[in-house]
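User: Teach me something about this protein's shape.
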Amino acid sequence: MVMSTASKGLEGVVAAETELSFIDGVKGVLEYVGIEIDDLARNSTFEEVVFLLWNKRLPSQGELNSFTSELRGQYEISDTVLSRIKDLPTSAQPMHALRTMISYLALEDSDPNSTKPEEVQRKALGILAKAPAIVAAFDRHRRGEKFIPPDTSLSFAANFLKMLNGKAPTETMERAFDVCMILHADHGLNASTFTARVIISTLSDIYSTMTGAIGALRGPLHGGANEGVMVMLNEISSVAAAEDYVMGKMTRKEKIMGFGHRVYKAYDPRATYLKTLAEQLAKDTGNSDLYEKSHAVEQVMEREVAAKGIYPNVDFYSATTYHCIGLELDLFTPMFALSRISGWAGHGLEQLEANRLIRPTAEYTGPHGVAYVPIGQR
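Assistant: First, the predicted structure itself:
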C-alpha cells in the first residue's frame, strides 16, 4: 500500500509569495507590509490600511485625502441595485445577499472583465465602497425599514453604522468598528484569500473573485466563529456562571468558541487592542455584563489551557464589539467580509503582477483497471 504524501488542508504547503501580511504564530506577530497590526489599530484608519495593502506603502496626506475622496464618491448604490435588494426574500441570510449583490455589480460595469491592474483596483474600490450600502440596505429591507442613503461626509465606518442604524454612531462606536475593519483586513493565505487568488489567476474578473471569496468566508470554519462566540456568551446566564459553563464544556470535550487558532500559539495580536476597546464600548452602551462574562471566560481558559498555546483570537472580543454596536448576530460575518474585501483585492492585484495559473495536483488514491459493466448487468 502506497502511503499518501498529500498534506491535509494544504497545511504547511507554501502556495504563494506575498508582501501584504506576515504572521509569526509562535511569537504572536501580524504585520501588514511590515507594520505591526497593533500599531495600525492604535494609530491608523481603515482607509489608510486599504491604501497600504493596495500600494504596499503608507500614503502621504495628499494621497490619503484623494483616496478617501474617491472611496466616498462611490458609496452610493444604483436604484437598480436597491430594487434588486428589495426583491430578495426577507428570510435570506445576509452573507447570501451580499454574495449575490456583489456579483450583480458586474452587470452594471460596461467592462467587467478587465484584468489591467489599474482597472482592477478601480473596480475593487467601487466594490469596497458599495458593500456597506448593500449590507445595510438588505438589513433594513428585512426589518421593513426605509433605506438610509450613504453620507459622503463620513468615514467608511461611520457611514455604514449610520446607514444601518439610521443615526450617526458615537465616536467610540465609530472607532471600535474602524479598528475591527483594520484587524480583519488581511491575514495571510487563509481559505478565502486563497480562493480569491485562485480565481483571479485564471484571469477571471474581480467581481467573480470577490463573489468566490465571500462564498469561502461564509463557511463556519472560516468566517463564522464570532457568531459562535456570541451564541456562547448568550448561553452563560451570568458572570458567576462562566466558570461552571467553561469547565462543563471542557469536561465534555466541546470547543470553547473564540479560543485557539490554526496559526497562533500565542495571544492573537489582533485581540490585544480590541479587548481594551470592547471594554470601553461595553461601558458606554450599558453592556458591561457582557464584557465581564467574556473576561471571566478568558480567565478560566487562561488558567486551564494557556500553557498549551490556546488563547483568545480576534473573534472573541469582536463578538462583544459588534453586539455593543447594535449588530444582529447574522451580520457578524458580513462585517468580516466588508473588511476583507480590501485584503482580497490586494492579493488579487499582487497575483496579477506576475500571474501564473494556480493549478495544484491531486494524489490519486482510487483503483486502476476496473472493467466497465454494462448497465443491464449491474
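Now, about its shape. The two ends are 29 Å apart (CA to CA). Residues 225-325 form a domain with the Cytochrome p450-Terp; domain 2 fold (CATH 1.10.230.10). If you'd like, I can walk through any region in more detail.
User: That's plenty for now, thanks!
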